[in-house]
Amino acid sequence: MIDLGHRDIAFVGRNSTYSVSMERLHGYMECLEKNGITPNPDWMIETAISLAGGKDGMSRLLDMDRRPTGVVCYNDLIATGALSELGNRGLKAGEDIALIGSGGVASSAYCNPPLTTVALEPERIGEVASEMLMKRLKNPDTPAMKFLLKPKLIVRKSCGLTRN
Predict the structure, then answer these.
(1) Which of 35, 68, 89, 152 can bridge 119 by disulfide, Cβ–Cβ 3.0-4.6 Å?
(2) CA-based torsion, 39, 158, 153, 117: positive or negative
(3) Contact at 8 Å (CB) between 81 and 58?
(4) CA 133, 135, 137 angle in degrees (round to 5)?
(5) How far apart are CA 14 and CA 27, in angstroms?
(6) Model pTM?
(7) Per-position pLDDT tens, the chain of length 164
C-alpha cells in the first residue's frame, strides 16, 4: 500500500497478548515507521477474529471524520467482513479504500473484488512443526525453538491504486 502512495493506513485485528496478534500489530507499526509514517492509534481497531469483527472494525473506521485510505486486516476472515461492510456502504475495496488480509486462504481469490493477501504457506508450517516435534521427542531437553517463515504477498484488486 505504501508503494501505491497510501500514507493513512489502519489496522483491524486483535491487539491481544497472543504472540501472533502482537507480532502482526508490531509488524504493521514497524512498517509504517520505517517509511516515515506515524501510526494513528485511532486507526488501530481491536475486534473479534470473525466476519462480524471485520464488519464492525471497518464500520468504526468509516464512521470516523478522517478515514484511512488503506486497511490492513489481521487475517483474511476479518478482511472478508471488512469487504462486506464496504459493500454495505456503497464503497468498493481497491477503488475507495485499499484492503489487504493475511493468511492466503483460497476463498480470498473469489471475493469481490479479489482480496490481496499475505500467504503463509500452511504446508511448510506443517513440515517445520513436525520437524521441531520430532527433535523435541528425541531430546526433551531441547530448548524451545522459533522458526520464521517468509510470507508471500499475493496482489489482487482489493489493494487498488491510491487516488491521491
Answers:
(1) 152
(2) positive
(3) yes
(4) 70
(5) 13
(6) 0.83
(7) 888 889 999 999 986 667 777 888 888 999 999 999 999 999 999 999 999 999 999 999 999 999 999 999 999 999 999 999 999 999 999 999 999 999 988 899 999 999 999 998 777 788 888 988 898 899 988 888 777 778 888 999 999 854 44
